[in-house]
Write a structure and sequence with these properties.
By secondary structure, this protein is of the alpha+beta class. The chain has one domain (about 10-160): Pyruvoyl-Dependent Histidine Decarboxylase, subunit B (Pyruvoyl-Dependent Histidine Decarboxylase, Chain B, 3-Layer(bba) Sandwich). It is about 20% helix and about 40% strand. It contains two helices and nine strands. It has helices at about 25-35, 110-125; strands at about 10-20, 40-45, 45-50, 55, 65-75, 80-90, 100-105, 130-140, 145-155. The strands form two sheets. Strands 2-5-9-1-4 form a five-stranded mixed sheet. It has a four-stranded antiparallel sheet with strand order 3-7-6-8, covered by helices on one side. It is flat, with a radius of gyration of 16 Å.
């Protein structure tokens, strides 16, 4: 097994929704609402590193490469409800990795969040992990013109934090 340095050891949840003049502008606005709009997203698959600790969202230097797992949905149907949610399942044994699941739909947040939590629970069962906790975060938005709903878990290496 290769032991890489700089494996993310902290994570935080963020979510936001926005209207925009175009689909891309609404996505950009949702990232700004989530607090990560001035970064370069690197979409990750859905593994939370062992022993990663949840922290409060913090400002990442503009232009930084930002690893994250996310769900996003955009709609241009006025009156439609859209939602995105993310769930993290964390084993009680913190030497094991957790999982991050993402889901979005043209549906209320209650439905989307329930589904993403079930997905996280199923991922733990697939790994044979019985003792774990699940935390989720999401956002719901009623479309006025063109809108995006976005939810994410950001992964970060605390050694890269500015003093």
């Amino acid at each position: 097994m290769i032991d890489l340095k700089n494996i993310p050891d902290i994570h935080f949840f963020c979510a936001g929704a926005s209207e925009g003049e175009t689909e891309l502008n609404s996505f950009d606005g949702a990232l700004l609402a989530a607090g990560i709009g001035d970064t370069n997203l690197i979409k990750m698959s859905s593994i939370l590193p062992p022993a990663s600790k949840e922290v409060k969202p913090f400002q990442v230097k503009p232009g930084s490469f930002l690893p994250l797992a996310y769900a996003s949905i955009t709609s241009s149907e006025p009156g439609e409800t859209i939602s995105s949610a993310i769930a993290v399942a964390i084993p009680d044994d913190r030497s094991l990795n957790g999982v991050i699941m993402e889901h979005h739909n043209h549906a209320p947040l209650e439905f989307v969040e329930k589904k993403v939590i079930e997905m996280a629970e199923n991922a733990m069962k697939m790994r044979g992990i019985e003792n774990y906790s699940v935390k989720s975060k999401g956002v719901e938005h009623k479309v006025e013109n063109i809108a995006t709903a976005f939810a994410a878990v950001v992964l970060w290496d605390s050694s890269m934090m500015e003093e």
